[in-house]
Amino acid sequence: MIDLEVRTYRSDELLPREEQLAWRIAEIAADPVAVDDDVTEMIINRVIDNASVAVASLGRAPVVAARGQAQVHPYSPGSTVFGVAGRYSPEWAAYANGVAVRELDYHDTFLAAEYSHPGDNIPPILAVAQHAGRDGAALVRGIATGYEVQVDLVKAISLHKHKIDHVAHLGPSAAAGIGTLLGLDPTVIYQAIGQALHTTTATRQSRKGEISTWKASAPAFAGKMAVEAVDRAIRGQTSPSPIWEGEDGVIAWLLDGPEGRYTVPLPGPGESKRAILDSYTKEHSAEYQAQALIDLGRRLGTEHPELRDPAAVESILIATSHHTHYVIGSGANDPQKYDPTASRETLDHSIPYIFTVALQDGAWHHVDSYAPERAQRPDTVELWRKVTTVEDPEWTRRYHSIDIAEKAFGGRVEITLADGSRIVEEIAVADAHPLGARPFGRDDYVQKFRTLAYGVLSAAEVDRFLDLAVRLPELTPGELGELNPIADRVPEAPKGLF
């Protein structure tokens, strides 16, 4: 890897294009290096993973609305939309599929200086691959780039510190991945990256307070913007530059300002793109920082059933990382995180709620655990309001560690019972994490798809999709155009402007 030093430059300072971050990313995207076999296998896993969570969300309102927007934009050759037949304009297909993938907050994650769901790269890259008639091997190369660029940016540049939403790293990564897919010249990819970043910076209010349906739409919108940015760049249109380093650029006014310095790790020429292997998927439908604590809650409730009774518990304190405490914990100071009438989007960002339900039920379900009747159960509400979080510097340090062996996303749970006794347990990583008790493998990804597709897809359709997915690098353009699970039925979309 090559460490690229990135900072703001005054307008009277010369920063050659070849030294700009956007150009270096464009060179990586244009590098024809082969994709390693283990990376290819993980890309297949994540294509299956994305389809799993998308299929499970086909009936949810944000997905129905997004699908409706795509369906009024039919196009030939076009791209497919999850759950339905037909071909649609690629940017709208990317958007609809992006919403479906993100809606349940149930696909892969990478956490470092910033947060990310790098599987969000797949919908826009796949949409363009289908529209442009590319084969499975080209799609694999494009996805490898998308993951590489987003993960590398996430390792180096914090957005949330400045209340900028994490999808600002996704626009450039998806544009780069599309550039690889299409075999574009670096000069074109460079312009697309700049346009994609410029149009996808927004505040984090979408993930604060009463979280709205836009939470799932924000990354999908970034993917849509990436598709449009590539289209404009191919047509010869240019973008603001230097987009990151300029005097009025992203770093100067949205991030750390003129004094900000970043070291971005990037593959060197001819170096494999392996960043997807640093990411991890979810066994449970909830914010990633909740994964390990769900596993611990399930275990504690099973081993100590008395903890399920709020009368037996004085308090539950979760000592955890800065992010977990301030984003999904009591440190967010969001009263909605303790509100039994809060939206699903809010509850899946409330570790006090999530831990309570996992503790009481000894299980976690992507629908049942969020149902209003479950959230409003009196004994749950009573116990839930006894759960608080606190930042522990050691868990924060481990969260940010670049050493995969010590990087952790869990915490320590201290339960004080009504009789004065205490139970203290901790967990570093989720059971499904590569270093966890039960790391996810191909069979787990396939089973996740079969489980979430049950009752939505026919058995024959499940088998048809999986047969294509596991052969991804070998698929012809025609076969890749069929890489779309079609449901027996989907809800009709509400009418909108179009």
Strand-helix topology:
Layout: E1 2-7, H1 21-30, H2 37-56, H3 61-71, E2 74-81, E3 84-88, H4 90-102, E4 110-111, E5 115-116, H5 122-132, H6 136-156, H7 170-182, H8 186-198, H9 214-234, H10 250-254, E6 261-266, H11 291-303, E7 313-320, H12 322-328, H13 344-347, H14 351-361, H15 372-375, H16 378-384, E8 387-391, H17 393-400, E9 411-417, E10 422-427, H18 442-453, H19 459-470, H20 477-480
Helix pairs in contact: 1-7, 1-8, 2-4, 2-18, 3-4, 4-5, 4-9, 5-6, 5-7, 5-9, 6-7, 7-8, 7-9, 8-9, 11-14, 14-16
Structure description:
One of its GO terms (molecular function) is 2-methylcitrate dehydratase activity. This is 2-methylcitrate dehydratase. It catalyses: (2S,3S)-2-methylcitrate = 2-methyl-cis-aconitate + H2O. This protein has 498 residues and is of the alpha+beta class. The protein has helices at residues 21-30, 37-56, 61-71, 90-102, 122-132, 136-156, 170-182, 186-198, 214-234, 250-254, 291-303, 322-328, 344-347, 351-361, 372-375, 378-384, 393-400, 442-453, 459-470, 477-480; strands at residues 2-7, 74-81, 84-88, 110-111, 115-116, 261-266, 313-320, 387-391, 411-417, 422-427. The strands form 4 sheets. A 4-stranded mixed β-sheet has the order 8-7-9-10.
